[in-house]
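PT: before anyone asks, these are the final sequences, not the draft ones from last week. 595 residues across everything. Please model them as a single complex and drop the result in this thread when it's through.
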Amino acid sequence: MSYSRRALQKVRLPTQTGLARREFLQLGAAGLAGAGLLSACSPRPDRVQTSAHIVIAGAGAAGLTAASRLAQRLDGARITIIDPRVRHLYQPGFTLIAAGLQPARYAVSNTGSYLPRDVNWIEAGVAEFDPEANAVVTSTGQRVEYDYLFAAVGIDLDYDAIEGMDTSLIGQNGLGSVYHSPEAAAATWRELDRFAETGGDALFLRPATEMKCAGAPLKYTFIVDDILRRRGTRGRSELTYAAHNNVLFSVPIVSEKVRMLYQDREVDTLYSHVLKSIDPGARRAVFDTPGGEVERPYDFINVIPPMRAATALRNSPLAWTSGPYAFDGWAEVDRHTLRHARFPNVFVVGDAAGVPKGKTAASVKWQVPVAIDHLAAELAGTQSGSRYDGYTSCPLITRLGRAMLVEFDYQDNLTPSFPGVIAPLEELWISWVMKTIALKPTYVSMLRGEA
Amino acid sequence: MQELDPGVMLAVLLEMMGIWFWLLGLLAVIGLVSFGWLLVRERALVASRLVRAQAFALLAGAGALVLMAHVTKSGFTDAGGPVDWLLIVAIFAGGWIGGTILIYALMGWWPHIPGHERLAALFARPPPGSLKRSSRLPSGRAGS
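LR: through. Structure below.
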């Protein structure tokens, strides 16, 4: 397996475990290759002695990964994680559930099973951040002081911002919503399964806010198209994708490729359409457009709500106070170190970070080691050169059995992990194979700090 | 290799395969040791046995493809580019080569396995009950 010199030069994690920048997806393929398993492992970096109290707010993908890696890296630290959720959700699996390929339980596991033994878990929500006083307040009123904070509180799905939307109706009368939960994804599949028997008008969209995995709305459109073709009802169906701005994807070259594929699959494309309200009973959706409100009927719809930083973060001094990330309350961090711009003992990783890209598990994989490397260096009295360049990835399913492995960075560069082998804009089975069997094990290994 | 840490790969494979990692690993070790030991003992590859093992192992190659299709909920008809065909060939070759080694070793050691004659007889002869039924049937039918 070979890597470009450019790719190797961009790897800058001098004190990490020899793990590379695009490893998240490389590991999946590596798992398939299965080579070199019994050779010697790279040495882990020296553990840093400290008595610091480190609080991790949130036990999602970023919080759990941070907990595992902090426990490995620091010797003597007191680590506390705060989150009320006993259930951990493998969110990249929601699309497969909504495609009828996996049951809802595929995405569900126990938070506690990923926590290192010596991490203290407070089963409560984070109600308030008080970074001036180095403290967080839990939903039960407990005040927890810290020396360092990892804020990983994730995203709020703001369904209430869509007039008429009722999440209890997901799975009924053509209303689908993959993002809500594994159960909603399964309900969306049941509704798609029914819809595919008859065909009709299907509507797909994305919110105008930042969102996790911006490829998911696109891939679900491809999946529905494929299922309708397999059922023989595509001919009497109209599929429409409503983009919130004038592109289909934030990376121009990917956007253009998707446009070409949609044209090939006869998916109608609307631009500058933002879902404003929905009437689930009458199966009508209203979009805000530059020309005013536009109403469209549907027989099947995948509603994706606006997404904002978690409430406690949004209302805290940690949020951006100006600029594009201020309105929805994303945390003001240095985009290359994930360290907070105004509170240097605070790192924000995962979806909550106010950075241009990367609300995906693949981003977490790369962000967390960088942030921890900077913390460890500070505790050791040294400097870290680790740098996160915005890498993220999306196995963009284009039909059942094929996907495009799209990887890119802050600058909209494509950053293929396997240049010359797996072309980033080519519909391939190998990318599908990675998505279906390799990504979840890689994700779980990431949570445990092993990948 | 900096980018593909073997320890990380092992962690991912363990997560991916669970108990099957150890079962298949054990099978691979047993197959390789048996094969190697047989080579040392016989000081040669037995051509006729190898050809038969390779022929039977075609089924193992096909089985590997079927297994891959099953776990990925897809199949080789989804191949979209050269790398996909390389992957398909690699999967088939893995099953075929592994199968050849295992079957060759099994065929070579078969005469040395205690009770192999009784085992062979089980496969070679139909069960006694079915013999009785089959011996009665022609006469019964003839008499009716």
